UniProtKB/TrEMBL annotation:
Sequence similarity: Belongs to the peptidase M14 family.
Cofactors, names only: Zn(2+)
Signal peptide positions (record): none
Catalytic activity: Preferential release of a C-terminal lysine or arginine amino acid
Protein's name in the database: Carboxypeptidase B
Domain Peptidase M14 residues, every copy: 98-392
GO annotations of cellular component type: cytoplasmic vesicle; extracellular space
GO molecular function: metallocarboxypeptidase activity; zinc ion binding
EC number: 3.4.17.2
Matching SMART domains: Zn_pept
Biological process per Gene Ontology, one example term: proteolysis
Enzyme active site: E358 (proton donor/acceptor)
């Protein structure tokens, strides 16, 4: 990676300034971090984007010339990449307070299952485009007629804190069962399906080739550009808004709903278990948000009041530990519209408790959250997840 890719944050005052960003994006390759697609940019919005080293001067000149208010969030991406890892010594063993490679995560799924046979089982729900098995962990004491909560991590390859949370959640479940009243009650009465990484091929690619990769790694016919955004690939207002039909874009919706093997495997599993799955949680980063449907339209879900009050209470719980502030609400109005997301799809399947977490931070590190923040991020998020799960258990339907 070039020495100094930079990440800018601009606050756009009016339509004219939005046009500046649009023309910038049409002239050069701009990697939008927040929002994740140029057409979603609107006045009064905070916009974060990455620019390649050789374009930095040109971009700064353009922003200054047009009096666009900006600041540099990350002035040297290479340094920020290195700074994610708190120690240069990378061990080959799995750690809950470090970012783990896919090989480490895969081995961990096997180990945690072997060590906790009465609480954890592992299955394969499909395989990725590149042929890797998609491991799913099932947590809970065996029982009859148990309802379940489905949680996934690692949709977008570069959001490393997301898989770290799924691993942390499993660790907490097995370590605190029998000690923590809430966790014990949850695991006695519910099953948790945890998919530690959905987009495995993309995740591996962020370790080997391009830390900023987001999409899957599938080939697109008629294009040299690789990959589909898995969170624009579900049959929920598919490709109608906040998604792109161009394979080279980071929010490419795919050739059809569930065109990606990964999203199809997830959707198939949920469809097969619809009678038992009562809540769906999907973990992303960054922005510190707790979102619920809808994102594909400016409309409220039927149980809006209920979802809003759960999100409010869960955000309060999360803040009790480190005072981390989360914003909550329906996706389209709280951040921006985006069609084809898994949360809207799950909700439309009849899973009435459907939430998306956008974990730390609010942009200082963005996708490059240092390992020193894994533990506090996971600890606080766990409080919110436990709150939601406990609520679901008390309101089974």
């Amino acid at each position: 990676m070039a020495v100094s890719h930079m990440v800018f944050r601009v606050i756009l005052q009016n339509e004219g300034q939005v046009e500046i960003i649009n023309s910038l994006a049409s002239k050069m390759q701009v990697d939008f971090w927040q929002p994740d697609y140029v057409t979603l940019v609107k006045p009064k919005m905070q916009v974060d984007f990455r620019v390649e080293a050789d374009k930095v001067f040109e971009v700064e000149h353009l922003l200054k010339e047009n009096k666009v208010e900006y600041r540099v969030l990350i002035n040297n991406l290479k340094t920020a990449l290195d700074a994610q890892f708190d120690s240069k010594a990378r061990s080959t063993s799995h750690s809950y307070e470090k970012y783990n490679t896919w090989e480490q995560i895969a081995a961990w799924t096997e180990d945690i299952t072997a060590q906790n046979p009465d609480l954890v089982s592992r299955s394969v729900i499909g395989e990725t485009y590149e042929g890797r098995p998609m491991y799913l962990l099932k947590l809970g004491k065996s029982g009859t007629n148990k309802k379940a909560i489905f949680m996934d991590c690692g949709f977008h390859a570069r959001e490393w804190i997301s898989p770290a949370f799924c691993q942390w959640f499993v660790k907490e479940a097995v370590e605190t069962y029998g000690k923590d009243n809430v966790m014990t009650r949850l695991l006695n009465n519910l099953d948790f399906y945890v998919l530690p990484v959905l987009n495995i091929d993309g995740y591996i690619y962020t370790w080997t080739n391009d830390r900023m990769w987001r999409k899957t790694r599938s080939k697109n016919s008629g294009s040299f550009c690789i990959g589909t955004d898995p969170n624009r690939n579900f049959d929920a207002g598919w490709c109608s808004i906040g998604a792109s039909r161009r394979p080279c874009e980071s929010t490419y919706c795919g050739s059809a709903p569930e065109s990606e093997k990964e999203t199809k495997a997830l959707a198939d599993f949920i469809r097969e278990h619809l009678s038992t799955i009562k809540a769906y949680l999907t973990i992303h980063s960054y922005s510190q948000l707790l979102l619920f449907p809808y994102s594909y339209a400016y409309k409220y879900p039927e149980n809006y009041e209920e979802l809003n009050s759960i999100a409010s209470a869960a955000a309060k719980q999360l803040a009790t530990l480190y005072n981390t502030e989360y914003t909550y609400g329906p996706g389209a109005t709280t951040i921006y519209p985006a069609a084809g997301g898994s949360d809207d799809w799950a909700y439309d399947q009849g899973i009435k408790y459907s939430f998306t977490f956008e974990l730390r931070d609010t942009g200082y590190y963005g996708f490059l959250l240092p390992e020193s923040q894994i533990k506090p991020t996971c600890e606080e998020t766990l409080l919110a997840v436990k709150y939601i799960a406990n609520y679901v258990l008390d309101h089974l339907y």
